[in-house]
Design a protein that fits this description.
The protein is α/β, with parallel strands linked by helices and 282 residues long. It has helices at residues 9-13, 31-44, 74-84, 94-98, 121-124, 128-143, 155-167, 197-203, 205-216, 221-233, and strands at 4-6, 20-25, 49-54, 88-90, 147-151, 173-177, 238-247, 257-267, 270-280. The chain folds into two domains: 4-177, Rossmann fold (3-Layer(aba) Sandwich), CATH 3.40.50; 190-276, Pantoate--beta-alanine Ligase, Chain: A,domain 2 (2-Layer Sandwich). The strands form two sheets. It has a six-stranded parallel sheet, sandwiched between helices. Strands 7-8-9 form a three-stranded antiparallel sheet. Helix 2 (31-44) crosses helix 3 (74-84). It binds pantoate.
Amino acid sequence: MTARVMHGADELRGLPRRDRAVVMTMGALHDGHAELVREARRLVGDAGDVVITVFVNPTQFGAGEDFDAYPRTLEADVLVASQAGADVVFAPSAVEVYGPARGFRPDSVTIDPGPLGDILEGASRPGHFRGVLTVVNKLMSLTQPRLALFGEKDYQQLTLIRRMAADLSLPVDVIGVPTVREPDGLAMSSRNRYLSAHEREIAATIPRALDAAEAAAVDGPRAAEAAGRAVIASAPEVTLDYLVATDVDLGPAPEQGSGRLLVAATVGTTRLLDNRSARMGA
Ligand code: PAF
């Protein structure tokens, strides 16, 4: 069945109240998003509602980032969302979400991500997580779900959304869904479509760096970082921003125990992220 497309929150409010899961996206949907929708359907069953939001959020892009160029493909998105089992595609305008300012006003109340918002992606993209958390909070209010599903591909984002839900006592369960990968290991991302054929090949260096880091993690987090960075350094067309080992909450990595490996690197002009869990120490 084709999902219903709604642009106004009043249309959503008019739906009969059923158990609801929401998948938030900026559109340009790929199989990673489809997997989130399929998982949402599994969790709420046929009697529940699966809502996918499509909104390119201006407040999470910095000056000089790709807000204007970001792919807007609503028609194709409705097809992907419908095939994956969504009931509703909620595609609000910037005015619907932010009012006439279409973004933050100087006196807007926004969500402060705390110190976790200033590291890794937050260090490279100041203000990014303030924009993400504020829009996620708004979209939760507009869609009123019991469950909200996010990909592990954006692990820092997922961690911060979980923390926001806990710290602000939001009545929403935040669920992380494993990253969907291309056959060569590249994490699916809407930004992969920016890559030329040659860059697309080179981009597989990123998951290979995580393979090496994971294998070396047996010797501890510093060895993991060194091994991963060496793989990136061997590919001159890949520019590393960071490759770090942390604990599962993005704090300092343990010498022994569960950790996370996170990488951000640029291929051509496209910034790509990836991460995976890793056991640190023998
Ligand atoms: O991950 C994304 O696509 C966005 O950051 C999100 C969560 C939809 C907020 O705009």
